[in-house]
Design goal:
Helices cover 74% and strands 0% of the residues. Helix 2 (10-33) packs antiparallel against helix 3, helix 4 (91-102) runs antiparallel to helix 5 (107-114) and helix 4 (91-102) crosses helix 6 (118-132). It has 136 residues and is mainly α. The termini are close together. The chain has 6 helices and no strands. It has helices spanning 3-8, 10-33, 53-87, 91-102, 107-114, 118-132. The relative contact order is 0.14.
């Protein structure tokens, strides 16, 4: 994934993290409500395997919660890398990158908001991308 694609994923990453937080909240609520209880539909087997629906459900919730926490942390690290890379830019470079690649504005909007020419904005963008490349 190149630098521009990583920058364009910034808002998507924020939304994905928020979505994972909501999923975790739902899981914790389900955990607090508790498992449903005994299910008599299962066939009893002559083996010594203990098959408790309550235990299976609790283990499933714990596994899913752990997986979501890991995924959330991974996405947060990716977001932190982007923020860290952007922190080394000066104000104009950062503004060009945010407007063009994070917010997805067109070049005419970028040049209008910065009150600069297209060539100057493009030059700022190129300089900024070179600066942040080692961090992404």
């Amino acid at each position: 994934m190149n630098i521009i694609q990583k920058l364009q994923r910034y808002r998507v990453l924020k939304a994905e993290i928020k979505n994972i937080e909501l999923d975790l909240e739902e899981l914790h609520e389900a955990e607090n409500i508790g498992p449903s209880g005994i299910n008599y539909d299962e066939k009893l087997s002559p083996t010594y395997k203990f098959n408790s629906m309550t235990e299976n459900e609790a283990i499933s919730i714990a596994d899913k919660s752990q997986m979501l926490e890991s995924l959330k942390r991974s996405k947060e690290r990716e977001l932190e890398r982007i923020d860290n890379a952007l922190s080394i830019l000066d104000d104009k470079e950062r503004e060009v990158i945010e407007l063009k690649h994070i917010k997805g504005c067109r070049w005419d909007t970028v040049t209008y908001k910065l009150d600069r020419s297209y060539s100057y904005c493009k030059q700022l963008e190129n300089e900024a991308l070179v600066k942040i490349e080692p961090f992404l």
